[in-house]
Hints:
The chain is of the alpha/beta class. It has helices at 16-27, 39-52, 67-80, 103-131, 152-172, 201-213, 219-232, 242-252, 254-272; strands at residues 7-10, 31-36, 57-61, 86-89, 134-139, 177-182, 236-237.
Amino acid sequence: MKVADKVAIVTGGGNGIGGAIAAKLAAQDARVVVADLDSDAAHAVADGINAERSGAAVGVGADVSDTAQIKQLIQRAESEFGRVDLYFANAGITGVSGLDVTEDEWDRSIDVNLRAHIRAAQLLVPGWVERGEGYFVSTASAAGLLTQLGSATYSVTKHAAVGFAEWLNITYGDQGVRVSCLCPMGVNTNLLNSPGDSDDMLARLANRAVTTAGDVLEPADVADVVLDAIADERFLILPHPAVLEMYRQKAGDYDRWLKGMRRYQHSLQEGLQ
């Protein structure tokens, strides 16, 4: 899909990958609704875009775990720019480390990292099928293909996000709906740089695993890869090519891969003591 003259919503757009994607979309002549839980951050990104291309973006504060607020985002996009062509389900949270996680903490991770994608798709996909065109981009993580040391909530919800994106692609791909799934490793964002309580060994382990597994990329570099993938209509977006080889190793010998991950975990734990 060519994004020029298209209308896009980018959630989690107040910084990091989302902010970079919003800017790259506008640079390619798309019009963008920048949504973020932090309203000030969303407006700041939109203002920066509009300084380069007047009227190309609006910023909106929104909690995308709330269906009503997703509806409002879509309505705002339609009133400002016209019908929505692309939706970037990019908002995410790291969740909580360990097994001792409350029901409320699990619910929050599931709502933000998974149900927000489902709810947006429920609102948009039927109209896209009727029109014969639309694009849904899910930001998951390499953790959705591999795993995340330390945080079960993050690993599980990112696996689920990949699974939902796959299902959307298979179910609606022949009806004009394009679906891509972004699965990066380390990216220099607030999410990476906020590992949580420094006394929480598992939170520190999760952060250390991401920063040592491969290069930590800049959000703008990831956004370039995303826009290239959309142009090619590729499903799996891997800014870190090594993830594909790791995924193949996992599939090729699951037990060996699990043993290797345990060894990797032990080595990181020793380095943090």
